[in-house]
Structure formats: structure tokens, C-alpha cells
């Protein structure tokens, strides 16, 4: 025997209203679309260069060992705006990581390439905006460590070529984690030691 269940109209209305409210509360927001549109080196004259070209044996004023800088531009795509007109895809980048990879695939830190590092640099990029900032591409201490120290002393190496890979990380205002990466070439060499071994092989 079949039974028919009946609910009061008011109760059905309350249940439907609850479903409607639930839907509004769980609206999903698409992640921001970040693009690293520029990553270049800055030379001693303050000019931007497509490659970090550094002669380790070049003279510096009063023997100062410089940190090497780069210029980065990051673009944020169009965003989602909530009912109050607040953009949910504005992004706050808080840190960046710098790594080095050689073209021959040999990229062991402090043997084949300088040690990777992380640094803080907070910047907010609104939806549809592009921001440009300066960052470290090579710390001064790397020039006193392998393999750049051996390169400067003419031990085994004449040059090291590869890419500097920079990755920014942070989050959207809505809470989604975000990151964006880019790279620029590097060329570390020492004109003072023309008879040093040429190539991208680690000093033995």
C-alpha cells in the first residue's frame, strides 16, 4: 500500500529558502591569472639587460663586492567582483625564490651553481594591473663561495652559463594561494684568466 506524504506549504518554502541561501554562501571564485611579463638584469650603470653578464674579475670601487639586481614585472588578469564591488582576485605577493640552472643540466648548489635563496618583498597587484619591482638576482656572498670563487681564481672554469629562475608566491584576497615564475639567462666569467678551461664543467 502506498502512502502519500504531505508537507505544509510554509515548510516547503522554508526548505527552498535554505537551499537558495546555501548556494549564495558557497559561490566559488576562479584563481587569479598571473603572468611574469619581464625579468631582466640591471647593470652597474642602472640599465636593464636581457642577460646577467658578470665578469667576476672586474674591478669594483674600493674592493666592494656587489649584490646583483634584477627588474621584474608581474601582471594580474581581470578579476571577479563581489556584490559590494570588492575585487576578489587582487593578489598580495610576499616572497620570492631565486634558483640557478646550468644549460648542461649540472646544477648542484655550491658545486655547479650558486646556492638558491629566498627573500621577502611584499607587493599588492590589483586585478587588471601590472606592477614592476627590483629584486636580488645574486647575493654578494655567492661571489665568495663555490663555484664563483673558483671561477674568479681561474681554477678549472672559464665561464658558467645558464638560467636564473625566479618564483614569486603569495595569495589572493579571497585566500587562494598563487605563484608565478620566470627566468633570465646568466653568464658568469672571468676575463682575467683567458687560459682557464673553457666550458660549463665543474672544477674537480
Short overview:
This protein has 204 residues and is mainly beta. Helices cover 11% and strands 40% of the residues. The strands form 2 sheets. A 5-stranded mixed sheet has the order 3-9-8-5-6.
List the helices and strands and how they pair.
Blueprint: H1 9-25, E1 34-42, E2 48-49, E3 52-55, E4 68-76, E5 91-102, E6 117-125, E7 130-138, H2 148-153, E8 159-172, E9 177-189
Main sheet: strand order: 3-9-8-5-6
Count of individual beta strands: 9
Our estimate of the beta-strand percent is 35-45%
Note the overall shape: elongated
* Residue-averaged pLDDT: 80
Biggest sheet: strands, sense, closure?
A: 5 strands, mixed
- Radius of gyration of CA atoms, rounded to a whole number: 27 Å
Write the element-wise H/E pattern from the N-terminal end onward: HEEEEEEEHEE
First-last Cα distance: 90 Å
SSE-based structural type? mainly beta
Ranges where pLDDT stays below 50 over 5 or more residues in a row are 2-28, 196-204
Number of helices: 2
